[in-house]
Every structure is written in C-alpha cells, then in structure tokens.
C-alpha cells in the first residue's frame, strides 16, 4: 500500500507536518478510525527488524578487554573491521584489562587466569591450509618463530611458555586485578604467504587473537572465559610506518564528503570479541598417550642427566659402543625414522621430518641440518646420524691374570708340541675423568666385580712395591698403556685389593 513507509521516509517526505491529519487519513484508509502516535509506532511497519537482539540493559558485558598500542589505519571504510599495520620484529604492547562489573565471575577473584596469544590467518582459504603454510614458513626460516613474547618488556605475566611445535602462539598466566601488559613480536610478514612473488604483491592479513581461560577443579586452565581479536598486516621494519603515512596522505586528498565514508585513525587498537580458536586449549594440553612435544618454560630448560654409575654413552662396560645398535640405517622406514628421532631427543623435529625415511635423513649434509634445525640441534643431529662418539680423555688396556685371563693354547707348527706362550685378552677402558675413582669404577664394570668389594687399587713399582693409584698418577698415565692385574684379599678379609702391573 502507498501509505506503508519507513519512519525516516515519513520524516523526509514532510508528512510529519500536520501529523494528526495524516493519522486520520491512515485511520480512514484502514477503516479503524483515528490512531494515536503510540498506536502508529506499534504497527509492524515501524518496528525494528532486529528486535530479536538483546536490549541495551541485556547487552553482554565482556569480562576482559585487550588493547594493542598500535594505530589503526585511516583508510578503512565505516562499518568495516579496523586494520592495524605492524613492523616485523618490533615489540607491541597488549594491555590486559579487567573489565568485570562488581560480582561478575567471582570464582576468579584472587586467582590467576591463562591467556594464549596467537597470530593466525585472516583469510578462510589460508586457515584451511594453515598447517602446510606454517610448515613451509618453518622450512624457509629454520629456528625462527612467527610470534614471540618480549619478556623483559612485559609486565605482570607469569609462567611464560612456548611450544616448539606451535610457532605462532605463546601462553602465560596473569592476575586480572594487577596491571598486566604483554609485549609481542611478530616475525612473519604478510607477503611471505602470497601465492606469486613478482614484487609489489598485496600481502595477506593476519589476526592477533587472545583466548583467556580459568582454572578448573583438576588444576588445568581449560575453562574458556573470553576471546577477542583484531586484523593486522605485517611489513618489513619501518614498512608499517610508511604504509600508515601513505594512507594518511591519501585520506587528506579526499573531499570532506568522501572522508565521511571512512573511519578515523585511532592511536590504539581494541580487540573485538570473537569465538575461541578451534583448537584451544587442547593444543596446549597433552591428553594423548603417544609421545608428543610439550611446552617448555621460557626461562627453564630440562636436561637428561646420565646415571653416575653408568659408563660413557659411547664406551660402556668393556668399551664397546652401545650407540652402534641405535644407529639410523638407510633402510629405516618413515615410522622407524620417527621413533629414532624421538629416542634421541629430537621430538621437536618429528613433524618437520614426518615424510623422511632413513635414507632421506642420512642424505642431508651438516650444512643442511644446521640450516633446518639451527646450529645447536643441527650439529647434534648430524653427530647422532653419523654416530660421532665423544673421544675419551684416556684409554688403557687391562687384562686379569692368571685365573680370569683367557689362555688359548697354540700348537707349534714345527713339532706339534704345545706352546708355553698364552694369548692374554685385554679389555679397553675409556676414561672420561682423569681420576683414580674413575679407574676403579670402570674396572668393576669391565670385569663384573662388585664395586663395594674393591678396597684399593695399587700399581706395582720397582722391586715389587705397591704404589697407591692416585688422581695424579692417573693423570700421568700414557695413553693406551697396557696393564695386567691381580686381585688379592684385603688384610681384614673383607674385599679385595687390585694390583696393576
């Protein structure tokens, strides 16, 4: 019907004048008599189409707010999401603000919450191939991370953790009642993920997302509280400043009417509420029984310390290398190669080498591994692949006589009589420490003698005298010296003395 108009059309058309007459006309046309103002406004044509939305007093109040101290672009149209330019590797502050009203979420009062900050793709197409995209970036930038936390600059963050297999995320604990700022550094640039690189290409946008969790009854921070994100583009150092200046100059050239279609530039970027990232928090909580990389503290690293009673990892017991059986063979399958990497403490790189067989891994040169894994792990992996042993500080050869020496009778080739000579079989003893206690321990291991039964070790000197083996004497042993030794009962009848000849 011709009279069905939106309220703004009624006002613009001048029908607001003599409103009573208009209402009377409407009433006559409807056949229902005159309508009052409230009656007309109650008609469906004047009702807001989004009446299903919550009223102002029912609006959800976010418990937290995250503000990044970086200016938004002035070249963003009204009602579009803000866009912020960042410089690669530069530290940017994200202020973690407690936005709760009195009585909101009382269970976190006096407690810490956990936040995970991550840089992710904005484009849905790249989100579907995120794993492949990040693996390609990791291959080209070995040892680097997409996102880091500038720990010295940050305030109020506790227990900072990074996952070697999640290069685009960091997590930390913080107290909402205290001043907290996390300074982030983004190391990937937007043009690194463009399909074609001929120069001048348009970089892809990223998102900075913050997901916050509270602690559950079992002590895990898995109960989601709040998520927010913003759109960014990352440029090479100083590139963001140049892009911001270019956008500002373009806007200055526009007419006043055109400027009204664009948002003003703000000094800070407020992250807007969003859904939690799909894989949180399971990415950070290992519920799988299979070996998986776990988070390591940014301030602490855990190392495996060998047992003090064990021999060298490369020269155990009688000196034969125990690592030879652990050598990766060219015929190893992909699964066997993965198990070898896990066994030798290279779990960080299992995903990177997920399609490598033993032959593929062994073909890599030292320079290849250093470039892929970084200097420290690259050299360690190269030595493990090549079974590089740690050279001992001193090697001596020892044989026990006469009871435990293996005497092999040899037939004389000339007359068939037994020879009076004997072949003495020696054990190689590798010393990593130039100490008498090391000699005693290695002798006990090589000849299966209980260590507690060896009282003293002597060396037979001139005229048959017994000289106590000391650290200084061991330090003066010549490398690859040969010794025969005998065992005699101690004077008190408890244990033995060992005499080196």
Q: What amount of the residues lies in strands?
A: 15-25%
Q: In the CATH classification, which architecture of the largest domain applies?
A: Sandwich
Integer-rounded radius of gyration: 38 Å
Helix fraction, binned, reads: 10-25%
Query: Can you give the mean pLDDT?
Result: 75
Task: Say what the CATH topology of the largest domain is.
Answer: Immunoglobulin-like
Task: Explain what the structure shows.
With 501 residues, the protein is an alpha+beta fold. The protein has 3 domains: 64-273, Immunoglobulin-like; 334-386; 394-405 and 423-500, Ubiquitin-like (UB roll) (Roll). It has helices spanning 7-12, 19-30, 37-41, 124-128, 130-140, 239-252, 256-259, 334-343, 358-362, 366-373, 375-385, 436-446, 471-475; strands spanning 64-68, 83-87, 91-98, 113-121, 147-149, 157-163, 166-174, 180-186, 206-214, 223-235, 269-270, 272-273, 296-297, 394-400, 427-431, 454-460, 466-468, 481-489, 496-500. Strands 2, 4, 6, 7, 9, 10, 12 and 13 form an 8-stranded mixed β-sheet that branches. A 6-stranded mixed β-sheet has the order 15-14-18-19-16-17, covered by helices on one side. Strands 5-8-3-1-11 form a 5-stranded antiparallel β-sheet, with no helix packed on it. A hairpin with a 2-residue loop joins strand 6 (157-163) and strand 7. Helix 10 (366-373) crosses helix 11. The protein is elongated and about 110 Å long.
